[in-house]
Amino acid sequence: MKPPKFFIIIIIFLITVFLLAGLMWLRGDEDAWLCVGGQWVRHGNPSVSQPTTPCDNK
Length: 58
Description:
Order of helices and strands: HEE
Shape: rod-shaped
Radius of gyration: 21 Å
Structural class: alpha+beta
Number of helices: 1
Number of strands: 2
Strand order of the largest sheet: 1-2
């Protein structure tokens, strides 16, 4: 008994959605302030101003 074509299309669509969501999650935050060598460094174009808390990169 063959599964209906509609069922196969739905399964392929769901797998594609999960793969794309996983890639977006793995990409991480592109627009943020990073602590590098004890200094705040802009990464991308953050929407918030530079943090005023000390940068403690241990």
